[in-house]
Amino acid sequence: TSVSVNEPTFTFCDLWSADVTQWSWNFGDGSPFDSSSTDPVHSYSAVVTNNDFYSFEICIDVQNARGCWDTICRKVELLPEFQFYIPNSFTPNGDFINEVFFGKSRGVKEYNIWVFDRWGNMIWSCHHEGKNTAWDNFNQDGMSSACKWDGKVEDGGSNQLVQEDVYVWKVKLIDVFDKEHNYVGHVSSVK
Known about the structure:
With 191 residues, this protein is mainly β. Helix content is 0%, strand content 44%.
């Protein structure tokens, strides 16, 4: 009854009695009714445009040999995806390759990240929140990409580029299912 928005295809099967002579599947998305297949496969990829929640009501009308009609309807859901990845190094050296440190995500609606030096001093932080669908389109890096660290110490006001070293990061995020995730790791600044 539910699948991912990344693979929005359902396979239906008939469970009607042997005396059914006509049928019509209505997939609830405005597509033409299907009266030819008893076990249709239907994809919602034409109407699913965002990494979001979708719901459709599927109805099947059947007529038996005596001319009696019956209808049954069921709801199917397409659920968004949640993913989060973050690298372990970056090179803020001015060559315009791998200059910033940030995570890539999908299905995130609130994002916080903090970076600390080896003594536990917070040297950078960022917070972003909102609707995930604006960030989850094809070829985008997700809401977490709104927080990109360029390797400069912002907390404390020095705004100096950090030295080549290993730094600790902490991420706290809330996904589209309202579940909180906490991650801790390290990132190497290489010049």
